Amino acid sequence: MTIKVGEGTRIGWIGAGRMGAAPATRLLGAGFDVAVYNRTKAKAEALSEHGATVVDRPAELADRDVVFSMVSACKENLEQRDWAIEL
User: Fold this and answer.
1) Per-residue pLDDT of the chain (87 residues; tens, 9 = 90+)
2) Dihedral angle sign, alpha carbons of residues 58, 64, 66, 68
3) N or C: which end of the chain has fewer CB atoms below 10 A?
4) Which secondary-structure segment (H or E) carries 10?
5) Structure pTM?
6) Which residues fall within 8 angstroms of residue 41, CB to CB, at 6 or more apart?
């Protein structure tokens, strides 16, 4: 499977904290359609100022062309039950 990133590429982003917010913001600034999920919704909502769509569950990113995940290995993330994205 080859994915060409360019005009019209729909990006999903999981993790809008210290590691994820900056690269997601750069993608938004470059004009990409980015939908964001973060366990703490307020962090994802901060990206909506830059044009991000905020989703309530990671599974809502299943229709994206590519999904990036930038999360820590904290106990809460490891115990998260709805991380799976079924294609």
Assistant:
1) 555 666 789 999 999 988 999 999 999 999 999 999 998 999 999 999 999 999 999 899 999 999 998 876 655 555 555 555 544
2) negative
3) N
4) strand 10-14
5) 0.79
6) 54, 56
